[in-house]
Amino acid sequence: MGFTPQAFEPFFRTLQQQHGGENGDSAPIFRVSQPLWALLGVKVSPDGHFWRQVVTVTPGPAYAGEAFYQRISAAGLAKVFDPALFSQRLGALLLSSFLKMALIVGLITILTAFLYFLDWRLTVIAMAPTLFALICTLGTLKLLGQPLGIPTIMVAVVVIGMGTDYALYLVRAHQRYLDEHHPSLGLIRLSVFLSFATTFTGLVVLTLSGNILLQSAGLSLALGVGYSFLGAVMIAPPLLKRFFAFAPPKEGAVLPGSRVHLRRTVARYRGLEAYPRLFARFKILLDPMFPRLADFVKDPKIILDIGAGFGVPAVWLLELFPQARAYGIEPDGRRVRVASYAIGTRGAMTVGAAPELPTIPEKADTVLMLDMIHMLTDEALLLTLRRLRENLRPDGMLVLRATEPSRKRFPWKRWIEVGRIKFRKGQSHFRTEAHIMAVLADAGFLVVLSEVSGRNHEERWFIAKARDEGTETAIPALEVR
Questions:
Q1: Rounded CA gap, 286 and 284, in Å?
Q2: Which residue has the higher pLDDT, 73 or 124?
Q3: Is residue 9 scored above 50 in pLDDT?
Q4: 329: burial class by Cβ within 10 Å (0-12, 13-18, 19+)?
Q5: Nearest Cα to Cα of residue 164 among 240, 212, 231, 104
């Protein structure tokens, strides 16, 4: 460079000078003239109390940003801004935040699906395509050499939400129609495909963007949504077909009201919506109707259920008597669908309301009228009973349970039932014990037992059989106008 080895010796000696010499004498202090402040990056604060100097350094090959920052910060000598270290820390923070967000969204999605289905097997079937999509998306990005950056993690949150919809639609459709060849199920499949096609087309266009961030997000989204659709149409249907496959009923006698009896009865509602499944379980567990109902039914062949609802009593009896068949009628089509699925091949349920009766292959030996006569007028009740009398075998039995209004201070169950009927724009007709027995007598039945159902309940059992023409009764016939 043209400099002698001692050319900068005075400069280095000046830098090494201290405020005090070895003998206590003051050493000369190096002062920078003001015109050179800007050259050295020195600036005075606006209040003039302290100076600032901004120094830009170039790190060497052995530079460790984190360690250097810790040393300088701990000594308090200066404030350090390292762009590479700042970007690294910011990226790690964002990555951690989005990973937590993806975990939270995933857990909430699984919890929501479980609370909706209340069946861990259906929840697994619904979530399996999303798990498949996430694994395949990350694997494909790795094969394509795409780094796992912030756009990809952001997309994972979106894929969990969007990709789950396809499987949820298909699972819910199978649960609703219970037949993979149902025409309405084909419409659901078409709607799922159109939803995927429109979304996927827009995401493919996004991958052609010149912006690297949008291109990365579009590629990840397109792969995630595409794999979600493939998983929904390839994984969910076979699992659903296996799940909803007909299971032959278990053979063997069971004790009325036992745990085995409860398990077999509830198993007939497997795969259905959460409400009828829970209704069947808690109806059997909490209603004093069970197992007392078994004492009134003796080896039935044909069970006729009027106002069957979800068919819980009929299904409960079918599990108790393997040779029995049940036929019922119910005005609510949704309940008929559930009851028909639960009964299976051992009977039939039809939509209709009393005094209509379902078609039966032969006369019934057991007729059930449970908690439903309060929705019939006196004329409709009498006509229904007379028709049942004609379709009942001579040795058959009528099992009737009805609500008898009492003087209880808070008959909350009856209030709920009255409110439900009024909401449906109906009218309730609660009757006393004497009134019900009079109607039964006028219809040609002889009451052989009348007792309260359970303790502190307004429901009452009426067990009656067909009265012979010459049999007299002390109960006066009710005049129906």
A1: 6
A2: 124
A3: yes
A4: buried
A5: 231
